[in-house]
């Protein structure tokens, strides 16, 4: 039975003294709840042993030996020391805070004026040693608010390095750090239900001058601030634990303001100025050697005649060469690993990943569900302890139980392994931080809300009546949940349930990893539950990697089945570590038919468009199905040969190559096929000329143009292989060789195919049915088809009228606008775009961005070459008392204060800080056995005090505690293997055992410090986070290299798994400009050389290609196409395709002998423009349109949209802008070509009237009107 005590208050008197046993009112305490005996008596003068213990535990009460009085026995001091050691383990990093925390408890327990501060409110009768005594079970402690506020301020910012959070969050109950106040802080310390207080203490905080009971004097002792030395001479706290100690850190410089001229966007103003200048130049404008051509023409004519004369031998030889190359496909390696595709082996991120994986093992694998329950009703809960709380629909017991049921089902996954010859369960592959060597199923790291209840249905269903302030109510799972989300590191809640907040595997469950979709840490109103299974990661060639993938597949199967169950109350998204790669591979396989259909459409078009169709009766004779098939086979064989060759030499392929290279080569090859075939059809065989000679002569005219394009493109792609990105490099190599092989096969195999088809057509045999002949004779006049007459009669004359030529202004405006837009294109590639539109991962990414409130973890990793064991080395890293204010961890702390610029949200955990705290004699963590068989060996904190009375490191006076080099090396391995518990929460196992790597000599060769990014939503934020982290790491590296003994190559670098994929965006803009530039140079050089050093034609060619490329990027900005590695591949491709649109027409203009620029432009547009339109544009467009139906967003955006833009822009620039440009600025008449043609006219007068070739010496109008040639006038004009 409890007794009421009548208070007595006098100076120099005690209220209680000595210990009176265990408090029977306290159950489930985490420490022995020893209570004092009521004893109103004078304070005792302390003898030597008693005095020394008081001086050690409560130095602020020391009045000198022989002069110190106290109200506590030696036993009470030992119990107080043990109790304070629990808080000291967390607070000792800030000595003044640890002292102020102990100060009040020393005063209420031991002060010689105890009766002035303490007012006993409840006692009980106890029987000790045969005597009945009154034991104190509750009292009031009167404290000045001046003292309480100062003590609270000194402790409020002390950090827990392992979590990055505040220590006070574990000492303020449900209020955590954010809502903690001095009163709430002391209320928690005096609440016996918290498992740490042996009795109830009602702390009364009294403002100065406020009334108090008679005799009471509120305690108002001296309180050192966190920026002041403690009473024992310890240094002030560090900046990380005490804001007053922080030096002035100027905020990070803001990003540069947008370039402006006045109030106008500066870039826009520059672009407008360029446009106006070009327009002015255009308005003001309004007021070559034949040797190369002859040599190439003669060479290709002889070659073509030879190939056409021996078609079967040519086809056989070509087939043998292709087969020899293609045999290499047996050894082809298809790269699907995103790391291998987009991160170069010698890139910085890849080297950092290799370093991390070598020393720390790869990142653990994440398998996760994010569950919601839309429409599920929420409820209000009036808690006895915490007041009114609003619970969302997802935070209800029945849903939590359903989540636990699903979690248990997943944890029970098992399967047989032939490799291990036994059944495999989760414990064989799970990440078990606190028992990594021999884990059980319960040791596996599973983060979820049920872990607050140790995954126990019994704990979730637990209820108990509890009385608080005279009110009795039932407390249940909701009270425990509210407590734990505010104090996740607690081993016991403050309810009468007495449950721990720690998970079943022994680690804390941070609320931001268990629930999502809340505001301002209002966790009970969360909209989502998060369930995460963490598995170990293994090398791909490891047996356990197969086991992990098998487990993850079974996990996906279970979750997919659960999602389809109509009884499921959850709406959720999920993913496994393997999901992203699986889905990318799936969509690639599913979209292969789309590409096949695309190629089939192109084939049908080519087969139909190449036909002459002079009459319906000859439709099967004049069709070119076999020629079209031959052209497609030439493209296919060139791709196979390229892939086979690179497989021979060990360069791996990728799905991008399989999808894009055939498409590119088909676009390039089809154009050459159309030019060759159409030229052959339009040209009349000369008298006495054989079919083979005819084919050779036509090839001699068009092959230089085909060589110009193919050579430009192949050199372009070979130079593109200088890219550092593996996917871009391999694509460029494969494309370059495929283009070369395509040209070579066109000069051989396709010439042979055309020769055989010409024989067939001359004999009037049907295209597919060779045995069937048609009696209708072949027309004598060469067929010009529909497009050529249309171009000659309508399109070219209208386009090149003086009025319509002004359209060049529109293109100049579009070019300048695109320059402006180019600087606003979004750089990056969000992961979602790599997935098919029906992928379950899209929903996961949506949920991730919507509900996750913390970003990915990032490690700051140190390399070999830094001596952590010296005092200077530790001070350069740590952030507690005595540390360098600009240490590694302190700089990271500064960065977290500007999360919008640093993208860091939570400071780095520091094994150095916790190791120093672990060694501190003020805690019980590191002691040595003083009895038994293990004398002198390490003694765990769980062992009784009398067994381990010596600390590992002796206490220091007026000197910051640092271990010696020998102590550092001796105790560090023990610290890393020490399991954290209530007595010693600083143990390093689980948090740091894999964070420090030592060689056989004990030297630290690698270590890491983990921080957290802010939630990153898109690739731009991921890229900027990487940039900021690297800048911070470089700053830290410079500082740490200044420490004596540090190696010059020592480095600190940041690492997280996402950096691999986003590093490319740090340099992709300059790299892209370089790649495109090196592609443009050969197009100019080759054009100049093959046109007889015609620099003007080369420059006009180059200008048009540049405009197409720039305009493409401008349209990308408008159409939401991001700039990334896939875009870069397409832009490099765009340069190649632009060559096809431009170069043929430029060459035709340069070699035309019409008298004026306009007439030459008309002729080139009609003759070559029609072939370009039919061969490039119309070949690409049908196939591109088919890609719009692909499932993969990547294909829809970067292959359909982007290729459509490239083709349309190439078409309008090649057939609209370029002819007009040439009509104004094209090169002058090539007199050498003119003289050569006049010579040919003189010797072949009889054939002149039928001549239709582009090189005839007629004006465009003469050829249309049938007038005789104007050779003499042209010659005069040329002179």
Automatic annotation (TrEMBL):
Write down the membrane topology. Multi-pass membrane protein
The segment annotated Disordered runs over: 1258-1279
Where are its TM segments located?
267-291, 312-332, 592-613, 625-649, 655-678, 698-720, 732-756, 803-824, 1073-1093, 1099-1121, 1170-1190, 1202-1225
Which terms are listed as keywords in the entry? Cholesterol metabolism, Disulfide bond, Glycoprotein, Lipid metabolism, Membrane, Signal, Steroid metabolism, Sterol metabolism, Transmembrane, Transmembrane helix, Transport
- According to the lineage, what is the superkingdom? Eukaryota
Q: Where is it located?
A: Endomembrane system
Q: Where is the SSD domain?
A: 591-756
Cited Pfam families: NPC1_MLD, NPC1_N, Sterol-sensing
Say yes or no: keyword Heme present: no
What GO biological process term is on the record, naming one?
Answer: cholesterol metabolic process
Q: InterPro entries, alphabetically?
A: HMGCR/SNAP/NPC1-like_SSD (IPR053958), NPC1_MLD (IPR053956), NPC1_N (IPR032190), SSD (IPR000731)
Cell membrane is among the record's keywords: no
| SUPFAM superfamilies found in the cross-reference section | Multidrug efflux transporter AcrB transmembrane domain
Q: Name one GO molecular function term.
A: cholesterol binding
Q: Give the catalysed reaction(s), semicolon-separated.
A: cholesterol(in) = cholesterol(out)
Main subcellular location of this protein, as a coarse class: membrane
A single GO CC term for this protein reads:
endomembrane system
What does the sequence similarity comment in the record state about its family? Belongs to the patched family.
Name of the protein this chain belongs to: NPC1 like intracellular cholesterol transporter 1
Please give the organism. Scleropages formosus
Question: Which gene specifies this protein's sequence?
Answer: NPC1L1
